[in-house]
Amino acid sequence: MKKEKKGNQYIFPLVIILLFSVVCSASLGSANLTVLDSLKIIADRIPVLKNLIKTEMIPEVYTRIVWDIRMPRILFAGLTGCGLSVVGAAFQGLFRNPLADPHILGVSSGAAAGATIAMLSGIGFTIMGFGVIGVFAFLGALLTVLIVYRISCVGNKLPVVNILLTGTAISTMLSSLISLLMTFHHNQIEKVYLWTLGSFSAASWSKVVFLTIFVFVCTIVIFIFSKELDVILTGNETAESLGIDTAKIKKIIIVSASLLVAACVSVSGIIGFVGLVVPHCIRILSGPKHQKLIPLTGIGGAVFMIFCDTIARTAAAPSEIPVGVITAMLGTPYFIYLLQRNKRKQVFV
To answer: In the chain, what are the domain boundaries?
Structure first.
């Protein structure tokens, strides 16, 4: 009973921390807003609470700042952190590799290549609120996953070694292509470089809706196969002996996870360490069972990303620090600490 309870006890506190992070982040910025004012503005948009909250004393400009500018960015950051963390947890279990992260299949390099081509081509159009860079990044990520998938397949099987090696090879090739393109376009180097460091400055409600659909659907699909991931973690032979179709499970999870990463990267740029560090931290609290690990990781990733983005947009105001820099600075020391803490233990932590 204690093992079943472990992990569940952290869901409510994490949800409270997430809500608190959203409200606090909405109150921070150049405008002089209190946490209470931000809470009132946010609560006023919730149908059930709308008639109970009085916002007449809050200037209209503050309402616009919180709801039209800050909230889309906060939710955008939270959804990205949730998506990348869930994929990180799934890949670490699926590949039985504690160092696996959401970008292991070359998705980030594909998105970066697509974004680079869009920036250097000078093409300009908008589709449902998405600029050409985001569209090209999404298509580049999907095309990369398709290539990696097709090369890695051996008949109906999808060997882990094949997909890891293919992802690394394709990623290296695309990185070289980006470097080559930047060599011939010196004036665009800074723009490409900043995109690869990640940012939520272009957040909008349309992008929030777009990302919500991908995060919700893909996370549900991955969660459905939580128990199968637990068994696969013990070895493919064991899983197959118990009647689990490991090849089918791998394909479904890889496709779902890749779509989720492609959606996140295409609208935010490349943000590292979130999908690597957050699952490790949550696993210490919840244990290795994916039925608890995946939802907790999603919430933890959202909290971590909101925290990092708040620092990114306020620490050097009016300038903005790329959020990928913040995640790396916070994630790297803690990850080194985890490695040192567990270097003598031959366990999956």
So the answer is: 7-347
